[in-house]
Amino acid sequence: MNPHAILIPAAGASHRMAPRDKLLELVDGIPLLRRQALRALETGAAVLVTLPALDHPRAAAVEGLSARLVPVPDAATGMAASIRRGVACVPPGVRGLVILPADMPDIAARDIAALLDHFEAEDARVLVQATGDDGTPGHPVIFPADCFAALAQVAGDAGGRAVVQANRHRLVRVPLAGPRALTDLDTPAAWSSWRAANPGS
């Protein structure tokens, strides 16, 4: 069994993109959420995708994939709800959980694999956080199994930040090329800028 799992939190309301849904925007001809799930699945890890509900339109975007869909009925309370529900569904025996934001189109499977290599090089005892090539902290972040209990208790919109801060003495930061660890698309302006820089996507 692959000792890693990837959690893609996709239960948020996407208010800043209203009336459009940022996770259903097409990239390379498919919804961004499906593209992100496919990249996660390329790593061979178990993939969990949180959704507002199993009958939400986002569920159709990941239909037919081997990712596990996790409903988050309390998604309105913040990102932490997705993390709590997702952690509760992590398969037994997983050594590390990658939290991969759904709205970061530049993260590739090879980036996730590189982060996992660093994680395993430290015998799965550290947290690993991707950064921009300038060192700015970004995403994804990998949490070892001994952090799962703390992740199961996070609250609000801070997500896993409190857990990262509490474990900063064993946090390893790994730069990814360019700004890919920092690029998230949650406003129409961000999408316009990204599409201009990535014609054909």
From TrEMBL:
GO function terms (MF aspect): nucleotidyltransferase activity
InterPro entries, alphabetized: MobA-like_NTP_Trfase (IPR025877), Nucleotide-diphossugar_trans (IPR029044)
CDD domains hit by this protein: GT_2_like_f
Keywords: Magnesium, Nucleotidyltransferase, Transferase
Residue ranges of every copy of the MobA-like NTP transferase domain listed in the record: 7-167
Pfam families per the UniProt record, alphabetical: NTP_transf_3
Descriptive protein name: CTP:molybdopterin cytidylyltransferase MocA
Organism: Citreimonas salinaria
Classification lineage: Bacteria, Pseudomonadati, Pseudomonadota, Alphaproteobacteria, Rhodobacterales
